[in-house]
Write a structure and sequence with these properties.
The protein is of the alpha+beta class. The chain has 11 helices and 12 strands. Strand 7 and strand 8 form a beta hairpin.
């Protein structure tokens, strides 16, 4: 065999061997770049006359009952928000209020018919009508500011072992001529709906409360419970985001809010403890809550009978 032919043959064998090695042992970067199927999140289908959100929303001061006539306060560097046990809520950005929660609840309601991440479309006029607000230019500007705030403020919520962080909405698009919006809800927060960790509220009752921010915040909080126990006034004030240095005025505001909840039929009644430090709300249960209460009573009775039989 002549020298050039021998070199070509050896080169072919080398290239063939190298090709087999690459095929059997692909580069790590190629393996890591393999696409991972996206998980599809679908919100629960709650009734048309109700609005819903994760318990982490209702059981924290994320949407406080604050008066924003003055400059809206800013929280920076992972400011801790008050929440009940099992929850941790951190916040960066411009604070929310109860009117922001009204908008977010309507966005969630629009999104519940489709997998999260799918754009939900609406007109500014239609959203304002949903909210029971006037449809003038001032409210159009207000609505856009709320949507920007829901996008730019960063929330970091841990509900037991589930943690989600980011903006409540991922962003959107607006046609300035038609005032049509397309908004994408952040699907990361859908995990907080899991394992029954969500609650719904009566939309008509919430609307009847108007701009009574404290009553609306309490309405949302109590709606995440079947039978709420006694709460100290200090705890309730922290949950709804009140920060009044005058404790007497703060308690008066909370008592007045309970009166409003009684007026709209949400509470049967309420009672203040003898020492005046705590309050107990007597809720009028929804059909679903009543069913849950009955099941709990039956379970307790069966457990007692079983215990008695083993004596």
């Amino acid at each position: 065999m002549r020298e050039p032919e021998r070199i070509n043959t050896e080169l072919e064998r080398t290239l063939e061997s190298l090709g087999r090695a690459i095929k059997d042992n692909p580069p790590k970067e190629e393996i890591a770049a393999a696409p991972v199927p996206a998980k599809i999140f679908q919100l629960p289908l709650w009734p048309e006359n109700r609005r819903a959100a994760p318990n982490a929303i209702f059981r924290s001061a994320l949407f406080p009952a604050l008066n924003f006539k003055d400059q809206r306060p800013l929280f920076r560097e992972q400011q801790r928000i008050f929440s009940v046990g099992g929850l941790e809520v951190l916040f960066n950005g411009e604070r929310f209020d109860q009117s922001d929660l009204d908008v977010y609840l309507e966005l969630l309601d629009l999104a519940r018919q489709h997998p999260l991440g799918t754009d939900c479309a609406f007109t500014a006029h239609g959203m304002l009508k949903r909210l029971g607000r006037a449809t003038g230019n001032m409210n159009h500007k207000w609505l856009h500011k709320v949507l920007i705030r829901l996008r730019t403020s960063t929330i970091d919520i841990t509900d037991h072992k589930k943690r989600a962080f980011g903006g409540l909405i991922e962003g959107g698009f607006k046609d300035e001529l038609t005032r049509h919006y397309t908004i994408s809800i952040n699907p990361k927060f859908a995990a907080l709906f899991g394992f029954g960790m969500w609650a719904s509220i009566d939309r008509a009752q919430r609307r009847a409360l108007g701009r009574s921010a404290t009553a609306k915040a309490l309405h949302a909080y109590y709606s995440s419970h079947v039978t709420p126990g006694h709460h100290s006034f200090d705890t309730l004030a922290a949950i709804v985001g009140l920060n009044n240095s005058n404790k007497r005025d703060e308690r008066a505001r909370l008592v007045e809010a309970h009166d409003r909840l009684k007026e709209i039929g949400f509470l049967c009644d309420y009672s203040v403890s003898e020492n005046g430090d705590a309050i107990k709300a007597d809720m009028r249960p929804t059909p679903g809550q009543a069913h849950h209460i009955v099941k709990k009573i039956i379970k307790q009775r069966r457990k007692k009978r079983g215990s008695a039989g083993t004596v």
